[in-house]
Amino acid sequence: MRFLFAIVALVLAGVMIVLGIAQRTVFLEPATSSLSATIAADAPYAVIDSSALTEHPNAQTVTLSGADTVFAAYGRTADVKAWLAGNAYVSIHSAEGNTPGLASDTVAADAEAPTGTTPAAAVTVTNPAGSDLWLEEFTGTKELTATVNLPAGISMIVASDGTNPAPSTVSITWPVDNSTPWAGPLIMGGAVLALIGLILYLWALIHLRRSHGPRRNLPKGPRMPRLPRAPRPKSIKASEITGRRSIGRSMIAVVPMFLVSGLVLTGCSSEFWPGAGATDAATVSPTPDASGAAVVIKDVPPAAVTVPQLERIMTKIAAVAADGDKNLSADILATRFTGPAFDQRLANYKVRAIAPDFPALAALPAGPLTLSLPQQSATWPRVVMTVVQNKDTPDVAPTVVVLRQESARASYLVDYAVQLEPSAKIPDLAPATIGAPIIAPDSKLMLLPPDQVAAAYADILSTGEASPSFALFEATGDSFRTQIDANKADKKAKLPTTASIEFGAKASTGPTLALATNDSGSIVAVSLEETETVKPVDAAATVSPGEGAVASKALSGLTATAKGFKNTYADQLLFHVPAAGSSDKIVLLGFAQGLISSTELP
Q1: Spatial separation of the C-alpha atoms in residues 383 and 55, rounded to whole Å
Q2: How many domains does the chain have?
Q3: Are 60 and 80 in contact (CB under 8 A)?
Q4: pLDDT higher than threshold 60 for residue 122
Q5: Strand, coil or helix: what is 42?
Q6: Residue 175 · residue 59 · CB < 8 Å
Q7: Which residues constitute the domain of residue 360?
Q8: What is the pLDDT of residues 562-584, one digit of tens each?
Q9: Which residue, of 175, 191, 222, is where some domain finishes?
Q10: Is residue 224 part of a domain?
Q11: Average confidence (pLDDT) over 405-427
């Protein structure tokens, strides 16, 4: 019976081990799942819709081929379609019904472009590469393979260069959980059962050996006559005993079994055990805010950009600024600057072209970004504010950059670039993952409507405490106002008796951009235009820009004039405007000033 139990245990052990190994070999499911689609031969663009990318869970490996240049980028589905507004494209999406797979359809050019997009007839940008809308982009030659992990709501645009046909073949591969959680228990259980069977087998052999030995305490029978003494048998060595020799052979046979089991078990990874298989790589958690709490907000427009996206945009802008500063090129500068920021930098180029020793404006740093506040918007134009600290000069005040994107195919342009006041305290702002709503220029919910801030502050610069708006603005810590007053006093003191000078200030034509703060107020960017007009006091007198007025001489080309001259300065200003009814005052957060023109009076 002992042999029977041993044999049964060993047979079951073998079956369990074989089944466990078979699960990882002959019965193992594929490690990936793939679907493919084709793009029409003449289509310059294609969109891999979010439904196609999320057809299966886990990360997506997208392979594109069939063009000399292969380009792909992903972004919000709405942004991708907005970029394509006015152009026909092939849409690759999940097949309808219960049949898994991908379907491709041609989407005709929109009859009417969405808000903020450019009609097809006016589109000049055809290559999607480098667009500020993309969260990430990829480029390859002949073939491109990219592994991404995109959640619902994100789509991928595919093209060559926007003119030539897009890649013709699209393949998407997802990793599949092919773990075999019972392989480990079967192999381990089989090994344990084999050990038990071995023990039973050894026990049965030992018992059999003992059962063939001499028997004692036999019942007494009738006394038999004494027989002649038989010759003593030859002694037998212990190694020649049949029972022991069998045990040794059994051990020799069992050792390989243990070796094989050990080798099998050393290959048991987490995929062999229940509850320890591969995790779902496609699981996307809500984005945490600065405090680490999950942010889940419904019915709110998305933030215009993500922080990594904004970092890439600022890197591009900083490179353009450095190139423009080096070559004194207005054309280069215009690709990333506009409005007051462009005017101030362009004037510096004009002066340096005539006076090479004139100092350049401070370089625009690329990062790191210490604060990001994108507008909540799914349409255009879009506004983004960020604070950039130059890592090479941490003792220099950070720069506040206000960007604006006019349409889906336009680049973000710098409207304002100002340095923070030393004592400036930026109010609490929404996390960058949420963004802030734009405040209408004429909003009555502010202490002062944003479009009136520039004029009110200009009046203070002109009339001081006599201005009706003087009490609305915080004077303490306003170094710009102190600087302006000091410059006026200095110029009056140095003015010859044969000349007169007049100062003026007014709101400029730069856009008024305002984003909401957490205290129901807003951060407002505005521009001013300051002027100083110098005239001779009699017909025989002449006036000149004065010693050291390099910029004025360079821009006007004058050394002396009997008519007089007018210098115009552009001011970029950033304010915190409290909510209506607040007891707080409007605070200047940062500023930048520069001479932009100097002309002779008519």
Answers
A1: 34
A2: 2
A3: no
A4: no
A5: coil
A6: yes
A7: 307-600
A8: 889 999 999 999 999 999 999 99
A9: 175
A10: no
A11: 95
